[in-house]
């Protein structure tokens, strides 16, 4: 492979993808923290957390963070797979088995994470959807984009309409996702259970949200984002933002405006299963696109690039940092650790996120000054390519 091509790709990845990944890791942590320390979302948050500060912070997370950052990471995941595919083509290497090994390792890490650390794992879903994405990866950027958009909008629009129609048949209060009995059970086990009991509860909680019945919803909510992200990669939107500047500015502005409108829908029309579904399923990805493109366009200015550079430290070690957040949080909240489950407020949890994330920025910066890859990333890369990549940097 031509060395100049290799250098350009790495430079562009640092400028765009790593900052977005770092930003996504922060947003994911803010949402995940609610589940780390409480049996969320099996209760009404506005009744569970009654303090004014807690309600205000939760509302902020609900509008600007919830469903926007795992979707941003989904877009980036598809983008990254296409970059790997293109680099393999330039090297004259068949990508098929490389992609399969990469996703198989992700699946194994996801299973360990979900069953032995935290039930809210997203890696298993990414791996499964990634295997399906490999069947589409040879499509043109335009076709990937169109297929992804249609596959996302059409089924989710139909589901949204069905939910609104259901409100005409049954009262809104009868259609709810809250499960007080499950919340109480989680409280008892995570607060007082042994590691074995917590593991059994963890697996049960994982199955509640990841059984076969939920697979079609994952397919219409996450897989299309892989296609859209992959299409953007083939169209070089992030590598060459100056060439698409006016178009990307329009997309970013429209995404942010309509994303906010969808996110405010439950606060305008009233909270129910239908408005909250639309809020997340349409508002979340639109804000994700707006956030990502805003970063890509803004960092063309050196001052903003320097300001946002700490995000890239975390982003380069995104897998290691994601897993660290789960390990640290469950040790803080579960009974086999400090046992603080159910004992803290939204505000305290959010302050903990900020504190831990700042530590992650500092630790990640120190790490990448000495190593090319994070610890999990290095193992992942070694398994993907069946080789031992250089790890430690020479001073």
Roughly what is the average pLDDT, rounded to an integer?
A: 92
The dominant shape is: globular
Give the total of beta strands: 0
Compute the CA-based radius of gyration: 21 Å
Can you count the helices? 18
The biggest beta sheet reads: none
Helix/strand order: HHHHHHHHHHHHHHHHHH
Specify the structural class: mainly alpha
| Separation of the first and last Cα atoms | 26 Å
How much of the residues is beta strand, in percent? Answer: under 5%
Helix content, binned percent: over 70%
Q: Which residue ranges are poorly predicted, with pLDDT under 50 across at least 5 consecutive positions?
A: 1-12
Word description of this protein:
This protein has 395 residues and is an all-alpha fold. Helices cover 76% and strands 0% of the residues. It is built from 18 helices and no strands. It has helices at 3-37, 45-48, 52-64, 69-91, 96-116, 123-133, 141-169, 180-192, 195-210, 215-221, 223-234, 245-263, 265-269, 273-298, 302-316, 318-333, 346-368, 375-385. Helix 5 (96-116) runs antiparallel to helix 6 (123-133) and helix 7 packs antiparallel against helix 11. It is globular, with a radius of gyration of 21 Å. The two termini are 26 Å apart. The relative contact order is 0.16.
SSE topology:
Layout: H1 3-37, H2 45-48, H3 52-64, H4 69-91, H5 96-116, H6 123-133, H7 141-169, H8 180-192, H9 195-210, H10 215-221, H11 223-234, H12 245-263, H13 265-269, H14 273-298, H15 302-316, H16 318-333, H17 346-368, H18 375-385
